[in-house]
Amino acid sequence: MSKATLNTDTVHRVGFLDKASLHIPILRILQADGTTYETAVLPVIDEALAIKIYDTCVFTRVLDERMLGAQRQGRISFYMTCTGEEAAIVGSVAALDQEDVILAQYREHAALRYRGFTTEQFMNQMFSNEKDLGKGRQMPIHYGCAALNYQTISSPLATQIPQATGVGYSLKMQGKRNVAVCYFGEGAASEGDFHAGLNMAAVLKCPVIFFCRNNGYAISTPTEEQFAGNGIASRGVGYGMHTIRVDGNDMLAVLAATQQARAYAIEHNAPVLIEAMTYRLGAHSSSDDPSGYRSKEEEAKWQQHDPVKRFKLWLINKGWLAEADDAQRYEKYREEVLAAVKVAEKLPIPMLDEIIEDVYDKPTPALKKQLSDLKEHIKKYPQSYPKSAGRL
Ligand SMILES: Cc1ncc(C[n+]2csc(CCOP(=O)(O)OP(=O)(O)O)c2C)c(N)n1
Ligand SMILES: [Mg+2]
After folding, report:
1. Which member of 66, 280, 305, 310 is catalytic?
2. pLDDT (average), residues 134-154
3. Cα-Cα end-to-end distance for the chain
4. Which of 82, 147, 363, 389 is most buried as measured by Cβ atoms within 10 A of its Cβ?
5. pTM here?
6. What single string gives the DSSP state of each residue in 84-106?
7. Alpha-carbon distance 118 to 148, whole Å?
């Protein structure tokens, strides 16, 4: 921020600012009944885009329901749903260009689907089979796809934030009219990487959209116990960044905010922070049980703000969707997901030699040594490894 943008007026009595000094309204366009507010300025959206958005939401709901079930049956080791947050994720990705680079946290698989990740590709990753793009080296849901400009998920929180600043900087240096888009939870915003990443992006003027899903919890910790400030949006202003807070369960509000954020980021070579207020309707992951830290009443209250239902009502009002066709859409995806599970779980795991590929340009001597040690170890204790581990 240049010195010229600092206030120079003076006062002569002590007076402190507090979190309420910054008034941050929430952008809302869509009402609960699927109509829009009279004064609302709608995003750019036509029937084809609206149906693509809705279809992605339905697919994601089905995928989440079925794969959580598959985890419970012991078919995959781990799963995370994004139930309740579909509008935040799909509404934002729908505002992007396919060449914009996405750096996600782990709950944004709907964005990957929107870009064209196939049901088969989802399954190959979750079953770590030989067709998995990550060659079986990651836990389920840690997707990545170079062709779709979707950087691979990493479990350590917030690492994607400074990386997104770097990607934005590189897009600017290459003269591309594209942005980096960084998704993260409000919990990840407590990491040091958040502050370093945002400050660098603002100072170096990088075209990055920082998209915070403020879903109320970091695993079992509610937001009240995570930070004392005025949400995450107040921090964007602190770093001198264009910032907006939106209703994250309102598809049209998220779409409108992200469309304008993208245009601004490209025109001004500058970052934008979007804080989407939403709620994680499901458990944190398949390893979590929320009944230990929140009430059924609280969950029921948020069920009434289901973002997919709200958007569906708008589509029906517009005459772009018929209620009668809805069940069929869900059924089609249930069958598709189930069929893909059956194929993916039967495919062999990747060859062991591939475990050291793609880490560096060529495997280093240290990696080669580790691989040969691993092979010896498996040969020595074959009873401790599944037969498939013998794909040497
Ligand atoms: C550096 C680091 N610390 C802790 C964890 C464990 N952990 C995984 S997810 C999570 C909560 C993150 O919450 P939030 O960013 O709000 O995302 P949400 O799960 O709500 O989508 C924590 C603490 C981790 N993966 N990495
Ligand atoms: Mg959270």
Report:
1. 280
2. 97
3. 56
4. 82
5. 0.96
6. T-HHHHHHHHTTS-TTSEEE--S
7. 11
